[in-house]
Amino acid sequence: MGIKIVPRYGKSLKDRLYLPAIFSGMKTTMSHFAKNLKDTSNIKTECYPEMQPTDITSRYRGVHRLTHRDDGSIRCVACFMCATACPSDCIFIEATEREDGIDEKMPSLFNIDLLECVFCGGCAEACPCDAIRMDTGIFSFVATKREDFVLNREKLLANKAFRGEL
Amino acid sequence: MATITVDGKEIYAKDDATLIDELLANGVNIPHFCYHPSLGKDGNCRMCMVEIEGKKRPQIACDTPVTDGMVIRTKGENIARVKRQILELELINHPVDCPICDQAGECSLQNYYMDVGLYDSRLDTPKNRKKKHIDLGANVMLDRERCVLCTRCVRFTKNITKTHELGVVVRNDHSYISTFPGTKLSNPYAMNVIDLCPVGALTSKDFRFHQRVWFLKPLEAICDGCSRGCSLFVDHNKEKYKDDVVYRYRPRFNKDINGYFICDYGRLSYKKENENRLLNAYIRGMESEFEYALLKMERLLKRYNSKTLFLLSPTLSLEEIYRFKVLSQKLGAQISGFDENFDENFEDDMLRKSDKTPNRKAFAYLEIKDDIDSLKEQIKDKDFVLLVGRDDVETIENLGFEGSVGVMNYRDFKQKDKLDIVIPTVSHMSREGCFINCDNFIQFSSCKIDKNLEAVNLLSFLSTILNDGKTTCEDVWNSGLGKMNFLKNIKFKSVKTNTIKIETK
Description:
The complex is a heterodimer. Chain A is α+β, with helices and mostly antiparallel strands.
């Protein structure tokens, strides 16, 4: 195993006194304090949860949703591409025959366990049908039971896009 | 012997062999649809083009005999362009519905597109639409849009089963595969067309949408449906938070036993691995703890000792039968292999045999009696009969037996409450073992699927009772089975990988 020798800094008298560094740091803090005290409207801090973030972009990976076809039916055909791409194996699908003539195949069960999900976006990337997206803008998902963190097909279909369905 | 040069490398080929055979045998990648070793050439797909020095145009490898000194190119810009154009033609009317296609992952079109295709579609006219998901009968689903018209399925019903159910109808790019009006695909080997079909045109109705093929893990095994003992691939998968499930059987090429095919009965017999399993041990009809029942069985065998009769099933492996013989000799007990699992209507002149057990020959080789008369003699003074690998209690009831009865099997059955002890064992695909088929071929089934069930492996159960720690097949071979007369010239290592014929006098 190789050894990397890291040069040591901070041996000069100025460094060892600490006081110049403290004062230079306090200078930044105090200048911000003075600026914010004069004009409170520009403070970056948000009072979450009373204030909700307004800067969620369209690329933000929130909780998943399943998209719809033009006729309002489920777009997913249960091809298992998302489950294959998923690094944490948190997508559980069972496929079934689709009887309504729109397509041949659809999921009878589509569960995503949000406690296992790492929100990498691999599923949305892998989907060949644009059936799963992460554009709901939901960044905080709260539940009281483990089971409630498993989103089923109906819940995923009910999730809406943050900026309206495209 | 002919010497041919393929991409600058010399290959020794058989004289008069077909070029594609020799290329595939030497690991040269030749894309092909219509050629299949069991069906021969047809020359309709034009996918297996190779450049042959001295010939003006590229030639199809499936219809070119090998001659000495041939110089062949399978790579290079010219031949790649030819292959790409042929593939483009095959894919013109293909719906590219891979997300809903069960073949995706083992599809020749997908593989060849990645090998020689990789073009952008130049099509700006609508594709020809044809009928999808047609139930052809015999568990086969047809999708006419995905078909490349290689006619492998047509030639299978014409040349192999000789039932002539399938044909190609209508001309040019409207033509499609069909059965004759009003008829269905119906023969005992029909589902082989699913494996033969290189694309997703013919898929299994039984496997339909159950699992994507890239999740499946194949294991090698021997079919236990009849005494032919066909070689199989067992495709299984353990999904997260679920138990291991067998999803399908596929034929495994074995030139001595089954060739490229298996019968539909054997193919669908995977269901008994998943359904109707014995889940609990029972003592006098009461559910019992598994470990306790095993100890109870040990005590029963000690108590009844030479008053025991082991009634073995011919579905047990050679090793298991041998170990039961060792045990019965130690106890001074009797052992019988009488079993009536025959079905004369099942037999045909292809693969299926009337004897619906995989290992009946083993009884003869191990000198265990399996006729009714000797069973009648053996059962006379017995107090305990242990049925192993079977649950046909009525067989011994009909002989007027009134003592204790035990069953060790993997299937659930009805008369559990009448019996003294019932212990679940692992199923055929969850344990290794050798099987001797109807033509005296010995084969090793290495499929060992670990199911989350309370079930005992017979070899480890016997090693506990015999107290000698021989739990694997190799241990059993080394402990004496390998020294038996009929296995004198056969090594366990070679049985593990090969099919070997036992020489009989």
